[in-house]
Design goal:
The protein is α/β, with parallel strands linked by helices. It has one domain: D-tyrosyl-trna(Tyr) Deacylase, Chain: A (3-Layer(bba) Sandwich). 21% of the residues lie in helices and 39% in strands. The protein is built from two helices and eight strands. Strands 1, 2, 3, 6, 7 and 8 form a six-stranded mixed beta sheet that branches. Helix 1 packs across helix 2. The longest helix has 17 residues. The radius of gyration is 15 Å and the shape is globular. The termini are close together.
């Protein structure tokens, strides 16, 4: 399971010209599901995302997680993160989770974060989304479990 996280000052997701999810300070989480992923990996990754210290403390060091920084999550499904780009000029998605598997794990990820008290907004699974963000830093990390 893969989470590409970006520290943002604002981010939003639009579908059909309508904003369906938006946050101010926080993390934009692009979430990719691979074939071997399961609920155990989902929980491990969700905990890592929520605990990862990418926000600056009073000394300018990255010592605060999203909750400690008073931020929120915007979680967007992105199956292309599971692409194999090692050969040729076209990505292969043979390692990506099936749409049914990915939807279940995406929804579990969001529910898990919310159950832990994390303010969490979402995109729309499998929709054509327009994602806008202001990357703060820029700070971007690729987390995998």
């Amino acid at each position: 399971m893969i989470a590409l996280i970006q520290r943002v000052t604002q981010a939003k997701v639009d579908v059909d010209g309508k904003t369906i999810g938006a946050i101010d300070k926080g993390l934009l989480v692009l979430l990719g599901v691979e074939r071997e992923d399961d609920s155990f990996k989902m929980e491990k990754l969700a905990n890592k995302v929520m605990s990862y210290r990418v926000f600056s403390d009073e000394n300018g060091k990255m010592n605060l997680n999203v909750s400690q920084a008073g931020g929120a999550l915007l979680v967007v499904s992105q199956f292309t993160l599971a692409a194999d780009t090692g050969r040729g000029l076209r990505p292969s998605f043979s390692g990506a989770g099936t749409p049914d598997q990915a939807k279940v794990l995406y929804e579990e990820f969001v529910a898990f974060c919310r159950a832990k008290g994390m303010p969490t907004q979402t995109g729309e699974f499998a929709a054509d989304m327009q994602v806008s963000l202001v990357n703060d830093g820029p700070v971007t990390f690729n987390l995998q479990v």
